[in-house]
Design goal:
single chain; 187 residues; mainly alpha; 74% helix
Length: 187
Amino acid sequence: MLPSILTNLAIVVFAVAAAIAHGRKAPLRTVMRYFTALSNLLCAAAALTVAVCRICGAVPNGVLMFKYAGTAAVTVTLLTVLIFLGPRVGYKKLFSGPDLWLHLVCPVLAIVSLLLWDKPVLPFAGTLLGVLPVLLYGLLYLYKVVLAPEGRRWPDLYGFNRTGRWPAAFVLMLVGSFAASMLLRLA
């Protein structure tokens, strides 16, 4: 399946190149605080695994489930930019430079490849795989922004804790990631 291989390799190249470009502007530890970078690198790892398996002959369903989780993660990134961050920060800023690749191009390529070539056999409970990256990042973000000792905290990168609204933001992100995962599963 040449289209799957090429699309997945494109995701790898674009995500890694964009992360490196961000790494030239800020320390890597700062870049890796963002779900955008982490979700795209997760998706790139899954895409690389799918491409290698396709080149070798067959893609196990477990690998396709990994791809599903990575695609769900970057779908959350795309939807967060479109619905929440874009109106606050500006779409022009969020869809320029390396952010164009991380916020739009890689997520769209991942969605297209998942729907056309790389869809796993996924039981309903498997939909939770799409929520797992958001849940894990959400717990890390909650700790680093709200619960960590004062000198070890991150700034509230997304503004989810403005006026102490982190419980609502946490629940909304989990519900949103579940909805995105369901849409990918049903599509």
